[in-house]
Amino acid sequence: MSDDEDYDSEDILKQCLAAASSSSSTNIRGDAPQSEKRKRELWKRQQLAKEEQDKAKKAKKEKAREAVTTLEKGLSTAIEPTNKGFQLLAKMGYEPGKALGIQPNARTEPIKPIVKANRFGLGKPEEENKKHEKLISEMQERASKREEMLVDFRSQKSQLLAEKIISRDLSNAQKACRTQDVEAGMVEPRIPWFWPLKPPDETDVQDEEESEEETLSDGEKLMEITEYLRTLYNYCVWCGIRFEGPSELDGECPGNSREAHD
Ligand SMILES: [Zn+2]
């Protein structure tokens, strides 16, 4: 008996294990492709739904267009003599091409309604809407132009300021150059504009030098004079001092520009 029981329980256990292993193995093998398949199906369904929506939209638009054309066509053609309304009017004495009623100058054609097929404001003719749009675009254009002018004005202002600083630096450099040159025993500047310009009445007529002066900007003149002072006298306009020698100038002065000395 106990053997049978043992056998039975072992058998059941084996069956259970077999069942468990087979079901889990199918799960592992079958799960991934199934979810992929589901995803694909879902995507397909979504695509189909989208296509259907697009088709419906197009059909709706087409239908609306058709309705407008039918309506316009109907409004532009006269009522047929077979029409009930026409027959009623004819019974009361109406003749085609003539006005209704007894007034002699009455209209002979019915009032034509305007078919509205756009989304512009109700009661506003299209021209007025266009006018409105034009006005808005003009306003926007003017605003952007104003902005441009403001930017121009600001850049002009900063440019003016930069020019002012350069001209002041040049004047300082010319004064320093004259001081250094005079100390070195010179009575005349190497180039006329290396020293501050004489008042107009004292200026001699020097066509050649004057024309050369004209070709250089204040910034270029400033560079020339500062280089001259550094090379000849180890003098830095920005530091405002004369150094003992070129190595001291190189070591202690940050460089030949206003920016370097900020
Ligand atoms: Zn310096």
Automatic annotation (TrEMBL):
Coiled coil: none
Skewed-composition ranges (Acidic residues): 202-217
Annotated spans, Disordered: 18-66, 196-219
Domain (G-patch): residue spans on this chain: 81-127
SMART domains: DUF4187 (SM01173), G_patch (SM00443)
Record's GO cellular component terms: kinetochore
One Gene Ontology term of the molecular function aspect: nucleic acid binding
Family per record: Belongs to the GPATCH11 family.
Protein name according to UniProt: G patch domain-containing protein 11
Species the sequence originates in: Notodromas monacha
